[in-house]
Amino acid sequence: METERPIPADPSTLSDAQWRERLSPEAYKVLRHAATERPYTGTLLDNKETGMYHCAGCGAPLFSSETKFDSGCGWPSFYAPVEGEGVVNRLDTSHGMIRTEVICKSCGGHLGHVFEDGPEPTGLRYCINSVALGFDPAS
User: Fold this and answer.
1) Distance between first and last Cα of the chain
2) Furthest-apart CA pair in the chain: how many Å?
3) Cα 57–112–73 angle (5° rounding)?
């Protein structure tokens, strides 16, 4: 299930029109406007291949398949991002809830949310929109 890796971009140099051109309509809504794809609809939800998940917006490596697990939540779930902190977290108080949003450190794209109900060794569940990810199989 190989996806084309986007050409890296400095998000500060891309206009909204360029992001729209670069991304699918669904990925644009999620990555640039913090939308959420419907649960159980993402193409990477059931992916069991070994490899690296990257940002669909900029291509930055985000999660290894070694940290992916089936949480039953309807979105790809990981218990840790790749080393080097490919993601950053920030407070999200939208929709009358208090959550921790997960953002791509490279391009600022919305990826999903992280919760404290995941497996060991971290106890975290990074619940990530499939459309915000690409996948590079291990060679």
Assistant:
1) 13
2) 44
3) 130
pTM of structure: 0.88
Residues labelled catalytic: 127
4 is a domain residue? no
In percent, the amount of the chain with pLDDT more than 90 equals: 79
Task: Flag whether 18 is in a domain.
Answer: yes
- Residue 3 covered by a domain: no
| pLDDT, tens only, 101-129 | 999 999 999 999 999 999 999 999 999 99
What's residue 36's pLDDT? 94
Alpha-carbon gap, residue 127 to 1, rounded angstroms: 20
Query: Is 2 a domain residue?
Result: no
Give the domain CATH number at 107.
Answer: 2.170.150.20
Torsion angle of the four alpha carbons 117, 29, 63, 94, in this order, in degrees rounded to the nearest 10 = -30
Residue 71 has pLDDT above 70, yes or no: yes
Are the C-beta atoms of 43 and 26 separated by less than 8 Å?
A: no
